[in-house]
Amino acid sequence: MKYTQSDKYRSELQDISNFLELINFRSRTVDAYLQCIFEVCSWLEASFDVSLKDASVSQLRAFLLHLRRPRTDGGMGYSPRTVNIYNCAIKKYFRYVVKRPLDSNELPLCRIDRSLPRVPTKPDVFKLIYGTKNLKHQLIFALAYGCALRISEVAALRFGDIYFSENTIHIPAEISKSRREGKVELPNRLKRLLIDYAKQCCPGAKKTDWLFPGQKAGTHLSRESLSRIFKNRIAELGWETRGYTFHSLRHAHALHYYQAGADLFQVMHRL
Asked: Most exposed of 56, 79, 123, 186 (fewest Cβ within 10 Å)?
């Protein structure tokens, strides 16, 4: 059950929500942590009839093991990354609310096998982008690859963030993962594509308008929408088994930039 659909554990949720807001966590992160706290409260009450504040370390470990164990063994079968999100949410709660910090010896994080990202070749990237018939979708992919943008940054761009006179795109601090504003280079090919898109799809657009508006007035396309657009394109190409994600376009930019002669410092600076 979604925590917003229940009136239970309001005190616990409000306590941790206040601290996360004070720390200035992004709304998506706050929402994820509150859902984790709601679920651990529900499980502890059902399994041990104990509140989160009064739970022992062994009971908290039992909850994390329940998440990790496969469904065939009565668990949830969550991935190590997902279990670690719950782990971090619990530690935040005990650190800021209970005032009894838990270290990694008490609640160890799951080890994660970090495989190298699957990166498309330059011909494949060009086929993916310029073989796309929908101009909006083509521009979405081109921005992610040509400017090495994250999916959240592509989704939340405004027309006023495009500086044609400087050949740059401004990344506002509120959509930047680093929380710092910056500028990225606008390639000439992408500049022409942006002009065509503005003329055909958004004539008369103002600087404050979203580059990719959503269906509801005043909104922009969500990350989920962009991810779905990418997955549909991958399916069109028959590349479902290649392991590409929207973020692969950013990885591809970095790899191709390095292969073109840039050193690692230049790649890091661009990203």
From this structure: 123
Q: What angle do helix axes 135-146 and 223-237 make, rounded to 10 degrees?
A: 100
pLDDT above 70: residue 178: no
Give dist(CA 198, CA 6) in Å, integer: 44
Predicted confidence at residue 71, as pLDDT, reads 94
Q: Bigger pLDDT: 62 or 175?
A: 62
Q: What is the pLDDT of residue 134?
A: 96
Task: Report how far residue 72's alpha carbon sits from residue 233's, in angstroms, rounded to the nearest whole number.
Answer: 35
Q: In DSSP terms, which residues pair with 171 in a beta bridge?
A: 182
- The rounded distance, in Å, linking the Cα atoms of 90 and 67 is 13
Q: What is the pLDDT of residues 53-106, one digit of tens each?
A: 999 999 999 999 999 999 999 999 999 999 999 999 999 999 999 999 999 999
Cite the DSSP H helix spans in the chain.
Answer: 10-23, 27-48, 57-68, 80-96, 122-130, 135-146, 151-155, 188-201, 223-237, 248-259, 264-270
Please state, in angstroms and rounded to a whole number, the distance separating the CA atoms of residues 94 and 86. Answer: 12
In order of 44, 107, 238, the CA distances from 73 in angstroms are 19, 21, 35
